[in-house]
What does this fold into?
Amino acid sequence: MAEGSSTEGTDSTAEASDGLVDGRSAVRLVYLPQAADTLAGLRVRERIKRTGLILRWVFLALWAGQWLIFAVGRGRIDVVSTVLFLFVVLAVWGYPRLQAAHVQKLVGWQGEYHATVSPDGITCRNDHSTLIQKWSLFQGYRETAGHFVLLSRDPNIMCLDVLPKRAVQEAGGVDRLRAVLDEHTARV
It folds into this structure.
């Protein structure tokens, strides 16, 4: 999704695009990505899509029912069945955390992220790449206590941009960031 016709001069393309942005309306964020950021984004996506959340709870309910039927049917609690049931509970609870840890392995080594949110879109730069995303990519955003989570337009919401509020450098930046997001995309 990064714009530009060649891989050479990527840094100058990013600097040129930043130069076109009105400095008063652009908000700059600087942060090291954390697994908690990704987990916040995954939780927002779960609440919006609900399919994965419902399937996980149905799966857990089926396992609980199976465990209960065998315990009542035999008149005693089977150790193997109980251990398997506890493993399933742990897996259902831990799955989003495992996903967040996996994403952290993918992005954590790339170093500090410098994001610019402007009327043109979001430009995110790190030591290894520059990504420019236009507002048309996003269906909207949701605000949490510590993050702004932008959701892509695709039906499965495969792309999430998580902007941590802790990354905003200037005073009043969170309010300006919220204003830019409200102007260019919808709250969902």
